[in-house]
């Protein structure tokens, strides 16, 4: 009985801290790609110095992190969750009051498309459309066959190989003289863009954002003139068994910040920050290019962002919190 009574004050103190919105210890998934690591490090610094959290980064990846959050309540924050890859499980986690969607990590969503270099569009404005690209097909010479044109698809084994191949078929690019080129790897695909840019040569192919490549090399997404048919994309374009694909632009991928319900409830002020923290793809492309050029990891890039992009992050927090963050930056 005495042990039970002595435990009561601790329970009450814990409940009071919970009710007062104290952040306490919080774990943040540091995903294994650059943009996610940058955002995780930004969240860690802001939560620590702006909201008094004891923040810790833990290694993460989409599927294992999402599953662990649902089943174990850890980590408490996934800063950049490409949620379409496990949409059903995440939605169920929200419905069961295990998770919350805090906001959009990338306000534009993940972006995919067929691209041409900006310098080509400046010279030939019609190349911003698929009709214009087809009109100038002969310019995109296939290095293996000068009588044919080159369209660079996704490396074999990547999910985007299916969608790019189906859209190649739907747009009848073969009939327009284009061969579908397998770049061999992600490095091969980015290298093809870099080589074309260095020589100011025509290039046409698939790519995605946010990436360092699209931050470093200005590209224009080709308009198919079809708009987005999400149903077609889900049911056919992204399906390896699709026999008669139709033309559609790529729908944006949902890229969200996900937290546990327990974290959102115990630290409402910190959670509110996460609902406001968001990046546009153009900005993230530029940050990723800076990281690559400076061989910077997420921690170094975080300091660069918070120091050089104050107009971007200050609207995410109150003036008092912003002052605390600036003071911490001055002490680095």
Automatic annotation (TrEMBL):
MF GO annotations: transmembrane transporter activity
Gene Ontology, cellular component aspect: ATP-binding cassette (ABC) transporter complex
Keywords: Signal
SUPFAM superfamilies: Periplasmic binding protein-like II
Domain ABC-type glycine betaine transport system substrate-binding: 25-307
Leader sequence residues: 1-19
Superkingdom per UniProt: Bacteria
InterPro entries: ABC_Gly_betaine_transp_sub-bd
Protein name: ABC transporter substrate-binding protein
The species this protein was found in: Neptunomonas concharum
């Amino acid at each position: 009985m005495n042990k039970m009574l002595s435990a009561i004050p601790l329970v009450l103190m814990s409940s009071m801290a919970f009710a007062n919105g104290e952040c306490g210890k919080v774990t943040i998934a540091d995903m294994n790609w650059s943009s996610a690591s940058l955002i995780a490090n930004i969240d860690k610094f802001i939560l620590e110095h702006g909201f008094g959290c004891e923040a810790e980064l833990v290694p993460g990846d989409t599927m294992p992190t999402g599953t662990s959050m649902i089943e174990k309540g850890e980590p408490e924050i996934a800063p950049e969750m490409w949620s379409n890859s496990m949409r059903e499980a995440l939605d169920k986690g929200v419905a069961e009051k295990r998770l919350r969607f805090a906001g959009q990590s990338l306000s534009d969503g993940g972006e995919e498309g067929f691209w041409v270099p900006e310098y080509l569009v400046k010279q030939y404005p019609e190349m911003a459309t698929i009709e214009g690209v087809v009109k100038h097909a002969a310019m995109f010479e296939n290095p293996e066959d000068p009588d044919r044109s080159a369209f660079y698809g996704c490396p074999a084994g990547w999910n985007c190989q299916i969608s790019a191949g189906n859209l190649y078929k739907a747009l009848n690019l073969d009939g327009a003289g284009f061969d579908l080129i397998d770049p061999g790897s992600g490095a091969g695909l980015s290298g093809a863009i870099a080589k074309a840019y260095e020589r100011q040569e025509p290039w046409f192919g698939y790519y995605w954002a946010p990436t360092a490549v699209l931050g470093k090399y200005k590209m224009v997404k080709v308009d198919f003139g079809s708009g987005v048919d999400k149903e077609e994309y889900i049911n056919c374009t992204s399906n390896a068994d699709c026999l008669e694909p139709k033309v559609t632009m790529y729908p944006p991928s949902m890229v969200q910040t996900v937290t546990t319900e327990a974290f959102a409830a115990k630290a409402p002020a910190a959670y509110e920050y996460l609902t406001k923290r968001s990046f546009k793809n153009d900005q993230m492309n530029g940050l990723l290019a800076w990281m690559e050029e400076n061989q910077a990891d997420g921690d170094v890039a975080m300091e660069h962002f918070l120091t050089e992009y104050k107009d971007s992050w200050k609207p995410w927090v109150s003036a008092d919190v912003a002052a605390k963050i600036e003071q911490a930056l001055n002490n680095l």
